[in-house]
Amino acid sequence: MAERVVVLGAGYAGLAAAKRAARRLRGTDARVTLVNVSDRFVERVRLHQLAAGQVLADLPLRGLLDGTGVELVVAGVTGLDLGARVVRLDTVPYEVGYDVLVYALGSGADLDAVPGAAEHAFTLAVAGEAVRLRSRLTEARTVAVVGGGLTGIEAAAEFKEAHPQLEVRLICAGPVGDGLSATARRHLHRAFRRLGVTVHEHTPVAEVGPDGLFLEDGREAPADTVVWAAGFRVAGLAAASGLAVDGQDRMLVDATLRSLSHPGVFGIGDAANAQAAGGRSRMSCQTGLPMGLQAGDAVAGLVTGRDLRPARIRHLWQNISLGRRDGVTQFTRADDSPLGAVLTGWASARHKEAVIRGTVWRLRHPGPCGPGA
Ligand SMILES: Cc1cc2nc3c(=O)[nH]c(=O)nc-3n(C[C@H](O)[C@H](O)[C@H](O)COP(=O)(O)OP(=O)(O)OC[C@H]3O[C@@H](n4cnc5c(N)ncnc54)[C@H](O)[C@@H]3O)c2cc1C
């Protein structure tokens, strides 16, 4: 019987995996099916731009899959039966069977972090939320962006540049841009001063209310709009199905990206903890896409009876946009620790734009070059 390869999630990791596997399995009778809740590829790394009012490219998945032989099923995954090798869906065909499964369902906002965030805060984790925030920002007066990591920094800068009349506050529990070099952090502060974003470091948030934030030190920070950008969380589907996961519900995978508990299942992208494959496995498309390509190769290897090669997860930089004309590119070691080298200003903004465009190009043409090839 033909082998059935099923990939769950058509983000950076899953789309790359499905296309690479199909390419490697051309000429065999294996079938590759990609399941995704929408029929569009979402450039998640641009969702702060979407919320700020910019128009993003429309990327239908059928167009990106054209000529690959990958079958697209547009449906939400509701459960996995690992014993019966069946994926349960919320719409027709309601279930799909598999012989090899690739789990790439990504991540969402961590809205359980403090009380009130789920009720009152906006997020940037999915396209629908970014669109909801976009209309809110046209009438907002004061926006509190919570989170001093990459997403919070990019959001605060983008919103202030697009809506200069807005009062934008960036609130973080630790220093802004923690983990970046001193040079990179200095540039962040310069950019926020230039734009007029107020930065509140070492200011942990205790609760989100309808009119703003309650801080841990007892003060209040009024805001008519709160954007929660303090970390991502993985859905509990893998854990609920019995797959081995870490404390954040990310699937634990070995050096070849196969589940530690169920070797017929691969885990990639934000949804997987790939420390065994080297690197810190930070949630990023920078590592998600190569993981997808490497999983595509490994899946094909498994189906055709070849030995699986260990994956290599490596970081190169942290690329942070500060609006459309400024940015910080922090070059890193493979383990994501910062080097002294930093690119700033227009050069960094151009570099980031080129990387994002290059990422979509690589998704259109996922082989034969690139990791795993
Ligand atoms: C505003 C913002 C800016 C960012 N900037 C950067 C950056 O500059 N550089 C960087 O490297 N990373 C950045 N990231 C992080 C990056 O976007 C993620 O790490 C990346 O998207 C992970 O890829 P993935 O394929 O694992 O998951 P995703 O891209 O999230 O894809 C998951 C896919 O699964 C689908 N899905 C989810 N649940 C279900 C379900 N139950 N059923 C069916 N389908 C489902 C989703 O619709 C989606 O298509 C940013 C993220 C955000 C939000």
**Span from first to last CA?**
27 Å
- How is the CATH topology of the largest domain named? FAD/NAD(P)-binding domain
Question: What is the count of distinct domains?
Answer: 2
Rg value: 21 Å
Number of strands: 23
Q: What best-fitting shape do the alpha-carbon axes yield?
A: globular
Strand order of the largest sheet: 3-2-1-7-19
Helix content: 25-40%
The assigned structural class equals: alpha/beta
The overall pLDDT, averaged over residues, is 94
Provide a descriptive summary of the structure in words.
The chain is of the alpha/beta class and 373 residues long. The protein folds into two domains: 4-107 and 234-314, FAD/NAD(P)-binding domain (3-Layer(bba) Sandwich), CATH 3.50.50.60; 117-231, FAD/NAD(P)-binding domain, CATH 3.50.50. The chain is 29% helix and 24% strand. It contains ten helices and 23 strands. The protein has helices at 12-24, 47-51, 61-65, 117-120, 127-137, 150-162, 182-195, 237-240, 285-304, 345-364; strands spanning 4-8, 31-36, 71-74, 77-81, 86-89, 95-97, 100-103, 108-109, 121-122, 142-146, 167-171, 198-200, 205-209, 212-215, 220-222, 225-228, 232-233, 251-252, 265-267, 272-273, 317-321, 327-332, 338-344. It has a five-stranded parallel beta sheet. The chain has a five-stranded parallel beta sheet with strand order 9-16-10-11-12. The protein has a three-stranded antiparallel beta sheet with strand order 4-5-6. Strand 10, helix 6 (150-162) and strand 11 (167-171) form a beta-alpha-beta unit. Helix 1 runs parallel beside helix 9 (285-304) and helix 6 packs parallel to helix 7. The longest helix has 20 residues, at 285-304. The protein is globular, with a radius of gyration of 21 Å. The model has no long low-confidence stretch (mean pLDDT 94). Bound molecules: flavin-adenine dinucleotide. Flavin-adenine dinucleotide (FAD) is lined by residues 9-14, 35-38, 42, 44-45, 47-48, 76-77, 104-107, 124-125, 150-151, 154, 269-271, 283-286, 288, 319. Residues 9-14, 35-38, 42, 44-45, 47-48, 76-77, 104-107, 124-125, 150-151, 154, 269-271, 283-286, 288, 319 line the site of flavin-adenine dinucleotide (FAD).
